[in-house]
Amino acid sequence: MQRLFNAVVSLLYPQRCLGCQAFIQADEQFCQDCRHCVKPITSPLCLRCGIPLPTQKGPDHECRLCLKTPPLFRHARAWAYYQYGEAPLQPVSEAIQQFKYHRNMSVGKLLAQLAATHFPFVEAQYDVIIPIPLHLDRLRWRGFNQSLLLARSIGQTHRLHVDPFLLERSRPTVPQTQLKERERRENVKGAFTVTIPEQIQERQVLLVDDVYTSGATAEECTKALIHAGAQSVDVFTLARAV
Fold first, then answer.
1. What burial class does residue 72 get, using C-beta atoms within 10 Å of its C-beta: 0-12 exposed, 13-18 middle, 19+ buried?
2. pTM of the full predicted structure?
3. How many other CB atoms sit within 10 Å of the CB of residue 62?
4. pLDDT, tens digit (0-9, with 9 covering 90-100), for 114-156
């Protein structure tokens, strides 16, 4: 009966590619063309921020920016990366935009599955997963927090506690998308507050977001958590814009 039900659902609602929306098999996420454009992050990469390094071979090591200004978080990792601001096909970026800005929850469900499947910190012991929060005005407009959906999928798959209420965006900020790096950091400066500091003290925290670009948001959230007494903070995002 389950196989019959799945067949009927596939017939009525055929699977579409997350990148280009072409029809694909039910057990796939991307079509063949888009799969070739998905770039999983592999070694060598920066040990701190996780950015893929330009060299093709060699050990992982800290990148120049992290050596110059070490981030407050312990490690940041992402599943895949795409070229920020470039015109060619960027299927991961396209899928995230469909999810966030077009409210395509079926795409969001598949992205959440990818986040849980490619979660790299499976051996780490976290006390809590905290999704990057939206301001209440943005949450009302969008209707959901995409980071929370990713965090819940990771938490359910790896049996980790998720708490979306320990960190809040205490003031509205403009979208980071069109801002330069310095403007991004000014935009989110002081924008996050820990609501219950005693539930953060001496805890190992995992922050979850959809995209890591400049790291300004992750850094500012980490600052608030460390000031509240968190023992360590790691960051996981579905994608990395480079």
1. middle
2. 0.91
3. 14
4. 999 999 999 999 999 999 999 999 999 999 999 999 999 999 9
Structure tokens at 125: 């012991």
d(CA 13, CA 26): 10
Q: What's the CA angle centered on 40, arms 212 and 221, to 5 degrees?
A: 20
Please write the tens of the pLDDT for every residue from 164-187: 999 999 998 988 877 888 899 998
What does the alpha-carbon distance between residue 165 and residue 162 come to, in Å, rounded to a whole number? 9
DSSP secondary structure, the chain, as one string: -HHHHHHHHHHHS--B-TTT--B--TT-SS-HHHHHH-EE--SSB-TTT-PBPS-SSS-----HHHHHS--SSSEEEEEEEE-TT--S--HHHHHHHHHHHS--HHHHHHHHHHHHHT-S-TTS--SEEEEPPPPHHHHHHHSS-HHHHHHHHHHHHHT--B-TTSEEE-S----STT--HHHHHHHHTT-EEES-GGGTTT-EEEEEEEEESSSHHHHHHHHHHHHTT-SEEEEEEEEEE-
Angle (nearest 5°) at CA 195 between 193 and 198: 115
Q: Give the distance, in angstroms, between the CA of residue 159 and the centroid of all CA atoms in the same chain.
A: 18
Q: Is the pLDDT confidence value at 89 over 90?
A: no
Distances (CA, A) of 90 to 20, 37, 128, 201: 9, 7, 32, 40
